[in-house]
Amino acid sequence: MSSKDFSIKQLVAYCLDYANLTTTDALTRSVSTGKIPSDLIDIDEVIFKSTKDKFTFRLRIAISEKEKDELDDAELEELNAIIERDRRVIEKIDEIDKKIRTQSYTKQVVLETGFMHFDAKKIKNSFLAKRTHEETDDVESFSRSLLQLPINISISYLNRNFIEVEIGLRDDSVSILINKFKDCIPQTKFDDLFSFVAESESKEKSYLPINKSFTDELWNRIYAQLRNIGAKNITERPNYSDCEIKLIGKANYFLTEDLDAITDIDEEVLLETAISGFISNDEMDIEESVSDKGDTEIFFPFPYDKWQLRTLGITKNKAIIVEGPPGTGKSQTIANLLVHLAATGNRVLFASQKDQAVRGVKDKLKELKIPFLFGYIPDRNSPLHSDEDERDSAANTLVSLDKEFRKESLLEDQKLPLRYIDRFRGVFTSYISTERELFDTTSRLNQLAKYGDFARFSINKERYDEYRDYLRQFGSIKQAIDDFEAGNERYIEIKDKMYRDLEITLDEEIEIINNIIGKFKVIMPERAGFINKKIVDIKLLNMLKSVAKNLVQEIYRDIEVILFDKDSTKTQKLRELELLKEYFKYSNCVARRDELIEQGKTSYLKERQLFVLLGKLIGEEGEGRVFNRVNEYNMLQDKLDGLLSPLKNNSQSGYRNINDIRKAIRDLQKYYRKDTVSYVRNRLLSNIDKLKRSKATRATLKQLARSLTKSKKAYKTFDKLKHDENNFDVMSEVLPIWMMSLDDVNRIIPLKAGAFDYVIMDEASQCNLAYAVPTMFRSKHTIFFGDSLQMRDTNTLFKSNEQLSSIAKKHHVPDQFQIKAEEDTIKSIMDIASLAGFKTAILKNHYRSPKELIGFSNQNYYEKVGRALEVINDRILTYKDTNRVLINHVINVDKSLEDSEKTNHTEARYIKSLINDIRNDDQLKNKSIAVLTFFNEQAELLLREINDDSIKISTIEGIQGDERDIVIYSFVITDATSGKKRYIALTSEGGEIRKGANEGRVNVAFSRARQQVHCVTCIPPTSWPDGVWIKKYLEYVEDNGFIQRQSKKDLHFDSHFEEEVFDYLTSSLPEKVYVIQTQVESCGFKIDQVITNIKSGKKLAIECDGPTHFENGDGQVYVDNDWERQAVLETAGWNFYRISCFDWSDNEKSVKKDVLDFIERYFSESSNHQTSKIVRDIKQLEIQPSEEPLNLYKTNIKRSSRYQSDAKEKYEEVNLRENRSRLPGGLDISTKNTKQSFSVGGRGVDQEKFGRYLASHVGNTIRVHYQSMRAGSAQSLRELRLHSYDAVYFYAARRGDDKSYRYRRDRVIEYK
C-alpha cells in the first residue's frame, strides 16, 4: 500500500494497537516482593481509612541473644520462619531499591492490592484495539490485582535485628487496573468497564481514602462480566488485606484512552492538526530566510547563534524537525522559541518523556522572572522531583493572579536594538578590516619612505620639469647679466643713477632703441659733406621724433645726444646705441632675475635640496620609476586619510577604539534581551488585565485559585482539566506556555484538536509514534527536537517484531511509518518524520566541551552523515600535571574482591579513590561528577560504594539530556575473551541487529562530559576485542587526550608589532603572576597572545590588529567575518582586548597605559560597568506602558422623598458658596446668574463610548454635532482639532484658529 492511500485514522488506529501492546503484562519485566501479609502492612488502613502520605513497617533479620535465652524451641522455630519470610521480602525490596536508582526513567515502584483469580479462555491478540472476540480453545488461570499506587521506598537499619522500610505515597490517586482484563473480556464489554472507571476517576472516587462502596461497585461490574464470559472459580471478593511491592515499566493508560478517542474523529478534523504532516503536503514546504538585522521582531531572550535562529524560518510548517546533537544549545533554543511564540500571541505546549528535559527548559524560563509566562506541571514520579518544582508549578503561578505586578518601560519599536546591533557588527568588522588596510597602507608607505618628501611637497613630474625650466631660465639670465657687467660696471653705475627714478617698461624701450638703430643705419652714411650732413640731421631728427616719441624724456635726450654728437663716427654712434640697448636688456634681465628669485623663495629655491635629491634619484633609477613611486605614495596617503576619517568620527562619537565598539555590541545585546523580556512581560500582564474584566473569566479564575490552594490535593485540579475544556481554555489564556511530561499531556490536557498553536516535543529520538500522535492532535504545529543519532525508544527493545508486524499488517501501514524493534534501526518519531520528508533544521555549534572530548562522537557519527559539529568551546581543564583531558586508568583486577561477572569491585574501589583525588584538587574540587556504566548491576554497586548524592551514578539510559564537568566510566569486564558477549550491544560490526539503536546509546555515553573524562578499565585498550566500541573509544582517549595546543613554548610572531607588544607586556607584568603565550590555537583559529594569571588560571586574549589576515577557520568552525570569529572565540570562553597597530605607532604612550589599565581591571574583576553611549541614547526612547483608560467616576446623587427638591438645590448652592475658599486656587464654581440650566434632553451621546472616541483622537480632527445655547446649532457638523479632554469638557480649536475653546461633552448629540 502506498503512503498516498494511507489515512490519518489508519495511522492512529495502528498507534492505538501499539500502545495496547506496550501495556501487556506478558511483555513487561517486573520485580516483585510477592504478597506481603497484613501483619506487616495494614493495606486496608492505607486504602480505605488513612490520610497519611507515608507509613512504615518492620522486617526481622535476626534473633536477639535475649530472645534465644527466653523463647522455647517452638517459638524460636516460628520466629525463624518469620525471619525467612521477611528476608525474602527484604531481598526483593533491596533489589527494587537498587534498580530504581539507575532505571528511574523507564521504571516505577508501585504497591498493588485487591487480588483475585479466575479461570477463563484467553482472547487472541488481546493487545489489538477494536478487536473481535476470538478466544483460544484452552482455559487458562488468571491472577490479577485491582488497585495500584505509585510509591517511594526507603530502607534503614534500626538495629541488628530489624530493618525499617518507609513507604511514601507519590500520589493520592489510586490507579484502577482495568486494562489487566483486556485479554479475557470482549471489547464492547471492556469498553463499558473502562468508561465506568474513567467517569469515577473524574469524580475523584479513586482518591485516597477510597470509599468501599466504590470498590464494591467496581468489583460487582467486573464480576458480572467475568460470569458473562463463562469464567470459573472466580474469587468471591478481592483480597485487600495483602499487598505486593513491584518494580514495573512505566505505562500510560491515558495514552490508549486518547488514541481510542481519536480513531472516532473525522479525517477532516485530523487534517487540521499537526498529524496531517505525515499524510498531506499542505503547509509542509515553507522555508523563509531569517535575519536578526532588524527587518522583523525576534523575541529571543537568550543568546543564540545563526543555526538556532534559522529554526524560525521553517516554524510555519505543520510539523518540522530540529536536530540538536549534544551540546548544541537545544534547551536554550527551545526556550527562545517558546518565548518568541508566546510573544507573538501563540499558545504553546512543551513536552518530553524525559523530566530532565522539561526541568531544564523550565529553569531557563524561570530566569526571566516574567509573571504568568508558563504553567509547569511537575512530574511527581520523577526521582528529580523536589519542593522547588512545586513552588514553580502552575498551581502556585495561578494562585498569584491577584498580585500586583509592575509593567516595564520599553521601546516602541522592538526592532531598533537589532538594527543597532547589526550596524555595530558592521562597524566592528569594518574597524578590523580598516586596521588591516591601515597596516598594509602604512607598511607600503614605509617602503616608499624615500619618495615621501617629494609626495608631501607635491613634487611630481610636471613640477620637476618646471623646476628644471626655472633653472635653465635663471642660468641663462644670470649669464647674460654677468656677461654685460663684465667691463661695463661704470656704464651701468652711471645709467642706473640716470634712470633710477624712471617708470619704464624696458621691453618697449628696447624695441624703440632697436628700431632707431635700424633707421639710423639707413639714414646715416659713413661720410657726409656739410650739406648732406644737414640733410641727415634733419632726417635723423624727424626719425627720432617719429620713432622715439613714446620714450621718456631722459632716454630721449640720451639718444639725441648720441645721434647728434658731431665728434662721433657712425660706428661709434651705433656702438653707443647698441650699448644703451644692451643696458636696457641687462636691466630687463636683472628685473627678471629678481622675479625668479622671489618666485624661487616660495617654491624652487625653498625645495632646492629636494629637487637636487630628486635629480640624483632620477639619475639612479630613471625618471619613470621615480615618478611612479611618487604617484603611488600620493595615492596611498590619500587612502590613509580616507581610512582614518571614520575612525576619527567613531572617536568623536564616544568610541575611542574597537574595544569600545565591542562593549557597545555587548551592551546592545544585553539591552535587546532586557527589552524583549519587558515586552513579553507587559504583553502578558496586559492580557491578564483584559481577562480580569470579564465576569465569567474572573469567576473561573477565582474558582481555580480556590481549588489550587486546597492542601496537598491542590494539583489534582489539573487532573480535572481534561474533562473541562472551558477551564483549560481560561488557564491557557492566562499562561501561554505549558510544560509537562508526555504522560501528563495525555492525563491532563483536554483532547481537543488544535488546542495549542504549537507543540514542541523534546528528546523525540526516544519517543515512538504512538506517544507523539495524541500530542500532535492537540496542536496546529509540532516541532520535534532531538538527535536521531542518539538513543532510541528503549521500550521497543522488548517487543517482538512478530507482534509489531501483525499490527502493521492489520492497518496496512507503509514501511516508513512502522515502529520497528530490529533490522537497521529502531524507528523513533524523528526517524518516521524524517522519512516522511519533514523540513529539518540542524544545530551545528557545539558548546558543551572542547574538541578533544566531543571529537569521538563527531568523527564516528556526525561527520559521517555530513553534520559535522563546529566546536565552540576551549575551556580546557587538565588532570593534575598530565596535561590531558582524556585519561585511561588501566588497573589490575583484584580477583579476591570479585564475586560476579556482572560487577567489578576493583573498578568501583578505584573510582571511589579517584573521586577523592578529584575532591582534593583545588582546580577540580567544585566540579560536578558523573560515574557511568553500561550495566545495571555495576551501577548499583557503585551507588553503594561511593554513597554520595552529589555524584550522578547511572547507566547510559539515565544520562541522556544531562551532562557533568567530569565523567568517569566503569567498563566492568576483566576478561577480554569471555567478556565480548556482554558487549554485543556495543559492537560496531556491520549488519548487527539493532545496530542503529546501540550506536545511539554509545554516542550518548561518550558525549556527556564538559571538561574531563576518566576511563577505568582492567583491560588495556589494545587488548580489547576488535569490533567493540569500547576499544575504539579507549584508543581515541589514548591518542587524543593530550592537550598540545597550549604546551607551546617557543615564541612566534606574525609581525614586528606583535613582538613589540609582547616585549612591552613581559617587561610590564610581573613574571611570577602572569605567563604570556603567543599564537595560541583555539576553535581552529590562532590568538596572537594570551595572558594567563598563574594562580587563578584566568586568561585574557590580546589581538594585535593590523598585521594579520582574516581567518575563516581551519575546519573546526567556519566564519564569514571578523565579528563572527570573535563571537565564536568569546563563546568558547575567551575575553578579548584588541590593540591597534596604527594607534600604537601614532600614540604609543597612551595606548600602553590603556592596555595596562585594562589588564589590571580585568584580572582584579573591577571591569568598567558604565553602559555604552548608544544604549544610554536608546533608553531615552523608552516609553511607559499605556493603560487602557477607565471611565471617570461621577457621583450620582439620588433625590430623597424626605427633602423638597428646591430646598436641596438651595442647600447645595449655599454649601458650595460657603466652601468656595477651600477649593484649590479659590476657584469660584457658584452660579452667578439665575438663567435656567440648559439640557439636550435625551439626545446626548453615550459618554463612555464618546470618551473612548476622544481618547483615540487627541491631536486629530473630530467631527461633532454640538448643541449650543443657540437654537438649531446642532444641525451643522463642526470640524474641530481636539487638544485635550476631561470628564466634563473637551478642548478643541476651530478650523483656521489655533485658539483652544472649551466645549461641554454632554452637549454633543452625534460624533463621526
Average the pLDDT over all residues and give the rounded result: 84
Strand content: 5-15%
- Principal-axes shape call: elongated
What structural category arises from helix and sheet content?
alpha/beta
Low-confidence segments: 987-994, 1201-1239
Can you offer a commentary on this structure?
With 1312 residues, the protein is α/β, with parallel strands linked by helices. It has 44 helices and 30 strands. The strands form 6 sheets. Strands 1, 2, 3, 4, 5, 6 and 7 form a 7-stranded antiparallel beta sheet that branches. A 7-stranded parallel beta sheet has the order 10-11-9-12-13-8-14, sandwiched between helices. Strand 22 (1074-1082) and strand 23 (1085-1093) form a beta hairpin. The two termini are 65 Å apart. 37% of the residues are buried. Residues 987-994 and 1201-1239 have low confidence and may be disordered.
Q: How do the helices and strands line up, and which of them pair or pack?
A:
Layout (H helix, E strand, L loop, with lengths): L7 H15 L8 E2 L10 H6 L5 E7 L4 H6 L2 H31 L3 E17 L11 E23 L4 E8 L5 E2 L10 H16 L9 H17 L15 E6 L3 H10 L4 H5 L34 H5 L8 E5 L6 H14 L4 E5 L2 H12 L7 E3 L10 H5 L2 H5 L17 H32 L4 H5 L4 H25 L3 H10 L8 H17 L6 H18 L5 H11 L6 H33 L5 H14 L1 H30 L5 H35 L2 H14 L7 H4 L5 H10 L2 E5 H7 L7 E7 L6 H9 L1 E8 L14 H10 L18 H7 L3 E4 L2 E2 L4 H12 L7 E2 L14 E5 L14 H15 L9 E5 L2 H11 L5 E4 L8 E7 L5 H4 L15 H11 L3 E9 L11 H12 L15 H13 L5 E9 L2 E9 L5 E7 L16 H10 L4 E5 H6 L1 H16 L9 H7 L25 H14 L28 H9 L5 E6 L10 E9 L3 E6 L5 E5 L3 E4 L1
Parallel strand pairs: 8-13, 8-14, 9-11, 9-12, 10-11, 12-13, 15-16, 17-21, 18-19, 18-20, 20-21, 24-25
Antiparallel strand pairs: 1-7, 2-5, 3-4, 3-7, 4-5, 4-6, 22-23, 23-24, 26-27, 26-30, 27-28, 28-29
